[in-house]
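Incident log, structure service

09:12 report received: a user says their structure output differs between two submissions of the same chain.
09:20 pulled the input from the user's history:
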Amino acid sequence: MDVSIIVVNWNGRGLLARCLQCVESTVKQVRYEVIVVDNASTDGSQEMVKCDFPNTRLIENTQNVGFAAANNQGMEIAQGRFVLLLNSDAFVKDGTVDTMVAFMDAHPEAGMAGCKLLYDDGRLQRSCTSFPSLATELYSAIKLDKLLPKSPIFGKYRLSYWNFDDIREVDVIMGAFMMVRREAIDQVGAMDASYFMYSEEVDWCYRFKNQGWKILYYPEVEAIHLWGGTSKQVQLEMFVQMYQSRIHFFRKNYGRFSVFLLKILLYLNCVLRVGLGRIYYLRETSPQLRQKQDAFWRLLRVLPSL
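09:34 re-ran on a clean worker, output below:
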């Protein structure tokens, strides 16, 4: 088996069907298996997989165990030389999986690799980042990353100074499309299941780099990624979860004092958005902007407990 394609699903029946259909119609040159791990969906996702994709291996969880733990379940039974973690809202194009397997075979130093991701309308999706740091959090809080996006210093985290058109080594690739070498997984270990959602791929990449594996970005093939296709269902909770996972990453990898400083920066970010930014938001009628302010207000209230 060349590659095991693992798709974690939670109440994303329509997206999952499109994702699996894209796999079936585009993977032609490599031997593969598909493993769907369903996190207790209530929308009929499990029945759809059994009926429409009978060759897919289905793991049916009785509760939502989170993204990392569910992927780990898939990796436990995966038989491929490579494992492809593919989001249910990610849709591979013709030749993408075949070419990525060949790319990994040609680069034995790579523990994992990602392809170019696009939004559904064809716009580039910035799918790689640097590892987060106190400096990058500061630049984000005071908006230097937005004011000077072409600066290699202030645009470091989101790599906003780069056009994503060349092959290069990166720190982090997005978990929406992450092809991983089985040998590397055996050495580094699976994802840290203490992350329920968000930052689990950042932590995994951090561990891979610490073990000497390279992480490569390969833009010659593409996939569509809707970004947040299922998490949009609980957007406010997911916003808080994102920062909770970020704090967990700092605590685990950088130490408690770094968490103390990170929380100060997050307080600053929240105050700027909720306090000084209130006048701006009140002038706006956009529900998205109002929702953003509500999210930062919620984060400000729960931050001490994170």
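09:41 both user submissions now match this output. Likely a transient worker issue. Closing.
09:42 reviewer note: The chain is about 45% helix and 20% strand. The first helix runs from residue 13 to 26.
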